Each structure stands twice: as structure tokens, then as C-alpha cells.
Amino acid sequence: MSAILEVSGLSTQYVGARGTRVTRAVDDVSFTIEAGRTLGIVGESGSGKTTLALTLMRLLPPAARIAAGSVRFDGEELLSKSESQMRAIRGKRMAMILQDPMASLNPLFTVGDQIAETLRAHEATQRRTAWERARGLLAAVNIAAPERRVGEYPHELSGGMRQRVVGAIAISCGPRLLIADEPTTSLDVTIQAQYLKLLGDIQREHGLAMIFITHNLGIVARMCDQVAVMYAGRLVEAGPVRTIFNEPAHPYTRALIESIPRFGDATERLTAIEGQPPDPSALPPGCAFHPRCPLVVDRCRVEAPTESRVTVQHRTRCWMAAPAPADVLKG
Amino acid sequence: MKRFILKRLGYAVLSLLLLSLTIFLFVRLTGDPAVLLVEPGASKADLEAVRAQLGLDRPLWVQYGQFMSSLVRGDLGHSFYYRTPVLELYLSRLPYSLLLAAAAMAFSLLVGIPSGILAAVRVNQWWDSAGKIFSLLGLSLPSFWVGLVMILFFSVYLGWLPSSGSGTALHVVMPAFALGWYFAAAHMRLTRSSMLEVLGSEYVKLARLKGLSEALVIGKHAFKNALIPVLTLAGINLVIMVNVAVVVETVFAWPGVGRLLYEGIAFRDFPVVQATVLIGGAMIVIVNFFVDILYAVIDPRIRYER
Amino acid sequence: MNGSRAASLTVAWRFAALRIEGFPWIPSAILGTIALVAIFANVLAPYNPEVGVLGERFRPPAWQYGGSEAHLLGTDHVGRDVLSRLIFGARVSMVVGFTAVIVAGVLGTTLGILSGYLGGWVDQVIMRVTDTWLALPALTFAIFLAAVVGPSEMNIVIILGAVYWTRYARVIRGEVLSLRERDFVRLAIVAGCSKKTIMRRHILPNVLNSAIVLGTLMLGVVIVTEAALSFLGVGVPPPKPAWGLMLADGKKGLMAGYWWLTVLPGICIMLMVLSANLLGDWLRVKLDPQLRQL
Prior knowledge:
The complex is a heterotrimer of chains A (331), B (306) and C (294). By secondary structure, chain A is an alpha/beta fold. Helix content of chain A is 34%, strand content 23%.
């Protein structure tokens, strides 16, 4: 399977108002996604996940700049594209779903209009045709009575329906990659499962590659093939979902997994990770996690860990992770 | 929608009643309203006659009833100076004020909205700074002083524009500018902040993520949303302009209702003063009502809310 | 223009306008100077501002042809020294301006607190009245009141207070409504404090910030309104030297090109209002970022 997206060494920085303070929001991130596969990106708020997504879309605010790295989408280097070239890609070949569906939809325009405009912008579809296709798309995301819904305004739909509309907008032009930034966080728990199923169905049907950004490991376990864990802008662990869940190599990942409450563990107290995530503009020296790490040694306080391989597919950044034997790496 | 309209109508009627009550009470507050409501230089007998006519010895609510019934009949008193019914006088002057207000409003919107949008899109750059100076001055300089200085410049020194009267299109240029600058500043400020807020919204972000051209993002998605509060304000401001144009109309001897108010004060013609204030306030209440309805038409969310 | 150059130019502009971060020195200095001039008017003014010498009518400022050093800024239509009138006018503007703002502030804050805290019919009544009075433009309302009670310096202050208190009431009421839900107020209620005590000791100090910011913002508005009223002849009565009155007098000489009678008083008004507005803006940002809605 060819890779749809290859990210290597990507770094994004925010520059402070007077040009002095530099915040490393995304620091030396690399990963690959193939068609039909889902990558989950996990992290707390401030870990840089949303900045990463916006960097891939090249939609960063003026204060941010891409400091280093490369992003190859379908064989093309995105970072060297002009704005108008990116605009041709956004919404058509790469699509994104945001967290809050009420805020994502313009309250003054009908749902049908907002779906149709993507079609009209990218495929120069005529109005009537675009409207029909919008109706079809609403049906494709399992919205009942689409002919009626198409002419309604966002506030007339429920939260779950709105997020489906956002999904319809995303798939309208047949993208190859879909980035979903916490798509179910604003939804009722009962609706979440339905929505996740919908996303899964869409992916299978269209052969989409997906990036699923979330802080919820349960969703990762269900939806994703690969997972990448972010902390303070760096990728601290990445690998196949099964492997990471069963044998996490990084202390942070381990702590995240352990903090998931399990049924039947009535006697144990909920474990939380001690301390707070660091302020991105004032990161501790060395490994960013060291103030909270149970395995910390002197080296961690001074030197930021480089990437090491636990197995061929499983990477991590930790001085205390067991290094793989040489023959495993070669294989 | 119907319920919404009815509710707003109720508020409007209530406000009108309160307005008339306020005016009524204030006049009565001075102790002897007959002094005001009688011609200057009247004899004692005249005063007595007016007192009887007003029913000043009767209870307050009866007087109010009398007041309201004549109002509803369209009788707002007689002007001492012009010897005509005030309502007639007012209506004959109103078109001029509306013309001036329309010109000033056009100026304020044509200057205010585009510069507000530009200031927001190019935030903190040169245009934004220039806009800030323009609006700071507009909000701080008294409109009548601007008018006076303009007369000095353009009439006395340069002789380009006429300094008073209302004959030609040239006559309206200076008054419209003097009156409109303040509002241009207010509209610019509001457009800018409204636009900035909208540009930072999630739906604008999504519009960009859809790959829409910047023109479409700003022109379609941002523009309409940003404009709502501005147009609301503009609608209300139009009527306010008619009212606060008093000083500008006086400076330029523009024959509108503002000047009428000035004449009422200068000639101690109280019925004119009372009526002008009353009608002015009523107009604002009525316009507020229509603007609310318009708001609901533009923004579908409002219709279902209340 | 690349980012850093634009950034440094903006910083320069900000310094020039002295609006953000740093205390607005220039506006405060201007206001302070006006205040000092107002206080020491008797000492500073070379002539009696209310008495004119008919032989000296319409003298231009000293630097123009026909002017003399005896009257640095010229004289008006009855021969009164413009400089002296401007100096004493500062006193009038300051007194009327500050007093009116304080009157409106006290009245509006009190009613706002009562309305917001007590709720019920008190709130309804006060709010209806406020809404109605707010619907009437301040200038028109003030003119009406002045026509009813007759112009005098004292009356103007009362009238301006009566017209502008509604602006305070609205804002303060909003603040009180949210303060009411705060824990320290609830604690006081649970502890059994009387309503009056709570309003006085807990609510009032917390709304004072907003009241002060509003006050500085209102100062400019009040002064312009007073100038307009005086200009129309229903403000401060002659022969007192109010800047607005001077503008009205100045109009008489306008067509003849006697510019100093119009431009100079206007500049004084402008300086005072601009400074008050800039100071108010800075205060608003500093004291409470939430007040930016004002």
C-alpha cells in the first residue's frame, strides 16, 4: 500500500508579539499513513495536536511559522506549495472535521448551501446539481428526510446531525485524507458511538486515510490502526495500536493507559498522572516529561531523548525504554 | 415569528406611553406650566385662560388623559411664532432633515464599513492605525465645531461651498460631512471589531478548510455575519441623526426639524420644543421596532428564540 | 511589508498614541494642565473675562497683522480678551463637566445597584424608565429640559446629570446581576446581613471600577453636550465664559474671517475631550478587560 501522507521532521513554532519568545508547538514530528488506515494522535490540551493538524493543512495563524520538515501528500511536497495550490487541495483532496459542529457551520446559511459551496468551488458544479448532490450526501451520512433538511439552518438540527453535516461537507469532493479533530468531544455519549461507526463506514467505502485527533484512548482503541502519542509538541511514542496498548514503552503512555478506569476494579483508586503538562513556551530542559516521570534519571533532565526503535514499527523517545536488539532493528 | 412581532410591538407601545408620560410630567414639574405654554408677553388674563384650558386644577391623571387624547388626534399645539399647528410645521421641515440624515448616513456607511473591514483584515497595519486616528477624532470632535471650521475653510477662505441654506446639492456637502463624521467613526469601529470577531470564528476556519477562495471566505461568510450589528446600529443611528442634527442644522441654517427646535428655543416657542422632542423620541421607538423585525428577518436564529 | 518591520512601526505608533501598556502621559498632562488652569484662573488670566473694551473689538491674535501683545489671542465681538475667556472657560468646563459626571454617576450607580440587586418591580420600573430615557437622544432631551427649567450653570449640571445617569444604570445593573451570584455575596446573605449592608459593603466597592471607567468616558460626552447646549443658547448663560458660548459668539465673526474666535475655543474643547477619551480607553483596558464591551 502506498503512503498517502508522509510527514518527516515537521516543526512548527509560534513567534511572540515582539519577535522574542519562540514557542515550539510541534517539534520534529514524523509519521506515515497509508490509504484506508487510521492514525490516532493522542495528547492532552496544549500537546500540539491541533497545531499539527493545521500545519498539515497549511492554515496556521500569522504568528506561526513552519520551521522545518517535510509533508508529502500523495507524492507531492505540501510545504512548498503556494497558497492557491493549497486551496485547491483543501476540501477536495484533504478534508478536516472540527470539534464543535454548531460553531463550524455558518448560522446564516442553510445546511445545503454550505455543502453545495464546496462542490461549486472545487468542481465547478452548477447550482441545481450541487444542491442535488448535497441531498445525496446528507443521505450518505444517515440523516433522515434529507430533502427537508437540505433547506434548514444549522440551529434547526441536533448536535449529532450537525456533526454529520460537517462530515458530509468533508467527504463531498472525495478526499484521500480526512483529519478529524476531536469530532465526538462535543457530542452526547449516546451519539458518539453512532458517529464513530459512521466515520468507519465512510472510511471503508471510500478507502480514506484518516487522522483521528483525540484525548480519549477508548476511541483510539476502537477506531485506529496506528497511534502516535504527543507530549509538549513531540511525538513520544508511535506504533500499532495493539502493541502500544499491550506494551507501552514510554512512561507517559503507560500512565495514560493506566489512568483509564476499568470495570471490575472496584477496589483500586483512579490513577492520575502527577503534575501538569508544561507551558509550551517554557518547556523544561531535556525531556519535557521528566518532572512528572517515575523513571527519571539525570540524563533525562539534561538531554532531550532521540528517537529509538523498540521494534521495527514501534518507536519511542525515552532514555529508559529498552533498546531493541540489533537484529530486530535490521529486520 | 408572529409572537415575536407582537411582543416587540407591545414593548414599543409601552415605550411610547412612557415617553409621553415623561414629557408630560417634566412640564408639569416646573410648578406653573402655563408660563411655558402661553405666548411671551401675555397678560395675566391670558395666563388664567390657558390655565383653565389645560385644566391645571384638575387631578394629574385627568390632565394626562387630556394630553394624550389631543396627541392621538394629531393636535400637538400651535406655534406662537409661526401661528400654525406644530405638527404641520414639523412635517414640512422633516423632509429636509431626512435628506441631510440620508446624506450623512450614506457618507458614514460608505466610509465606515469598507475602512472597518480593511482595518480588520489588515489588523495592526497602516490602514488600521490610520483608521484609528480617523475614528478617534470623529468621536471626539463636536460636530458643530467641525461644521464651523469647514465653513471657515471652504466658504470664507476658499469660496468653494455655500455656507448656509439648502438650495443645491453643494449645500448639503458640508453639513452631511460634519454630521456624518461621528457616525462614520462609530460605524467603522463597530465594523472592525465585528469583523475581527467573525474572522476568528470556527465557521470561517471551516470555510478556509474547505478550500474556498479568500474572496469567498470574506465576502460571503464573514461579511454577512459581521454586518448584522453594524446595520442594526445604522438603522437606529439614522433617526438619532435626525435628532442630534440640531446644532449642525443651526450652524448651516439648514431648514430641518433641528433648526426648528433651535427656533423654538430662541423664540421661546415652547409648543414647538415640546412637540419636536416628543416626535423625535417617538420616531426612535418606532424605528427601533422596525430594526428589531429586520434583524429577525436577516438572522434566522432570532425568529425562533423569543 | 514583512512581519518584523510592520511590528516595529506599530510599536512606534502605539508609543505615539500612548494607549496601551504605558500610562497615557500626554492626555493626562493635558487634563492636568486644564485642571490647573481652571483652579488658578484668577492668577493666570490677564483680564477680566466678562468685561470688554469696545474700542478693542475683533482684534486678531498677536502674531497676525492688526494684533497686539496686549491681547495675545485677540478679542471678541465686544472687546473681551480671548485668552482670559479661554482660561476662565476651562474653569466652567471642568466644574460643569466633573460635577455633571459625578451627579450622573452617583444617581446611575445607586439606581443600578438597587435595580440589579433588588430585582422584582423595582428593577422593572427602573429598567423601563432607563430604556425610555435612553431612547431619547441626550442632546434633545437636555434641550427640552433646559427649555423647561431655564438655563443657568446649576441647572445645566442637574440637567446633564438627569440625562446621563441612565448610561451608568444600565451597565452597573448588568454587573450587579453577575455579582449577585458570586460566592462572597451568597455568604453574606447566608450570614444574615441586611440587604442594605450587602449593597453598601459588598456590591458597591466592586462596581466602583466600572463606574470610574464610565465616568472618564462620559466626561468627554458631557463636555461636548454642554458646549452644544451653550452654543444653542440654553447652556451656561452669558456673560460667563463657556467655550461653547464662545463658539456661538464666534459664529458672528465667521463670515468676516475672524477665525480665532471659532478655532481656538474648539481646540480647547477638542483637547479636553480627546484627552478624556484616551484616558478613559486606557483605564478601561487596565482596570477590567471585561469592560471592553463598553
